[in-house]
Design goal:
alpha+beta, Zincin-like
C-alpha cells in the first residue's frame, strides 16, 4: 500500500506540473495579447513555469520555510520535539529531517522537501506548548508519513505553482482595460475583456481545486501510517481533538500553504470541492476504529 501511494504521488506530481504549465502558459498568452505580442507572452510564461517547477523541486524546503516565517528549532529550547523527530526517523528508516518552529498559538504542523534525504518538519509553538509528548509524536508521525509517501513533493510543487498562477492572473486583471485589444472594435474588445476576466478569475480557483483534491486523500493515509510508526493511535486522536476544540482562524499564516498543514488553520470544514482536508471528525473516527 505504501509503495502504491508513493507511485500515485509521483504521478500526481507529474499531472500537477503538466496542468500548471498549461495554465501559466495560457495566462502568459493573454498577458502578451494585452500588449499585441501573445506568442512572446506565451514563451516567457512557459519559461517561467519551467523555472518555477525547477525551483520548487530543488529548493521547496527553503522556499516554503521562508514564506511561512519558520525558523530552525533550537535544541536546548525544543529538546523533546527534536528527540521525538529523531526517534521516529529511526523507526521509519529515513534520514532525520530538519526541524523548524513557526511562531503561532494555533496547534499545527507541516512537512516539506523533495525526497527522503531533503525534507523538513515544522510545528507551531502552539503545538509544542499544548500537546503532550504522545500527542506531539502522533503529529510528527503524521508529518513523517507525508515524507515517506512523497506527499511533500506534491504539496510543495503545487504551493509554488499556485502562487505563480495567482500572480499572473492578478497581472491580467490589473492591466486588461489598458490593453490595445480592449480598445479594439466594440464587439471584439468586449469579448476579449469578458473572456480575459473569466480566465483570470477562474484560473486560480481551478489551480486550487486540483491541488486540494490531490491533498485530501493523503491525509487519511498519513493518519494511518502515523499509528503504525508510533504504535499508539490515541496520541494522534488526542492531538486532532485538541485542534478541533481550540480552533480559531490563525492570522499571519500564509494562505497558499493551507493544504500543507496537518489541519486547515483558516477554517474547520469547507465544501468538499474546496476543502483542503477531510473533516476532523471523520479522521478521528477512522483512527478510533483501528
Amino acid at each position: 500500500m505504501v509503495y502504491e501511494a508513493i507511485e500515485q504521488n509521483k504521478r500526481s506530481t507529474f499531472f500537477l506540473v503538466f496542468f500548471f504549465i498549461l495554465i501559466i502558459s495560457g495566462l502568459g498568452y493573454l498577458i502578451g495579447e494585452l500588449y499585441k505580442n501573445p506568442y512572446t507572452g506565451l514563451i516567457i510564461a512557459f519559461c517561467i513555469s519551467l523555472f518555477s517547477v525547477w525551483t520548487s523541486y530543488y529548493f521547496s524546503d527553503s522556499l516554503i520555510m521562508a514564506v511561512s516565517g519558520a525558523v530552525e528549532a533550537d535544541r536546548a529550547m525544543y529538546t523533546q520535539y527534536i528527540l521525538s523527530t529523531e526517534g521516529l526517523s529511526l523507526a521509519a528508516g529515513i534520514k532525520i529531517p530538519k526541524t523548524y518552529i513557526l511562531n503561532s498559538p494555533c496547534i499545527n504542523a507541516f512537512a516539506t522537501g523533495r525526497d527522503l534525504s531533503h525534507a523538513a518538519i515544522c510545528i507551531t509553538t502552539g503545538a509544542f506548548e499544548k500537546l503532550t509528548k504522545t500527542e506531539l509524536e502522533g503529529v510528527l508521525g503524521h508529518e513523517m508519513s507525508h515524507i515517506i509517501n512523497y506527499d511533500i513533493l506534491t504539496g510543495a510543487v503545487s504551493a509554488v505553482l499556485v502562487g505563480m498562477t495567482v500572480i499572473l492572473a492578478d497581472i491580467i486583471k490589473r492591466n486588461i482595460f489598458r490593453s490595445s485589444m480592449a480598445r479594439a472594435g466594440e464587439r471584439r474588445g468586449l469579448f476579449f475583456i469578458i473572456g480575459s476576466v473569466i480566465v483570470a478569475v477562474l484560473a486560480p480557483f481551478a489551480a486550487l481545486i486540483i491541488s486540494y483534491a490531490v491533498s485530501r486523500q493523503r491525509e487519511y493515509l498519513a493518519d494511518a501510517q502515523s499509528v503504525l510508526l508510533t504504535r499508539y493511535p490515541q496520541g494522534l486522536i488526542g492531538a486532532l481533538e485538541k485542534i478541533k476544540k481550540d480552533f480559531a482562524p490563525a492570522p499571519g499564516l500564509y494562505q497558499g500553504m493551507e493544504h500543507l498543514y496537518i489541519s486547515n488553520p483558516f477554517k474547520m470544514d469547507g465544501t468538499a470541492i474546496f476543502a483542503t482536508h477531510p473533516p476532523l471528525d471523520d479522521r478521528i473516527n477512522r483512527l478510533k476504529s483501528m
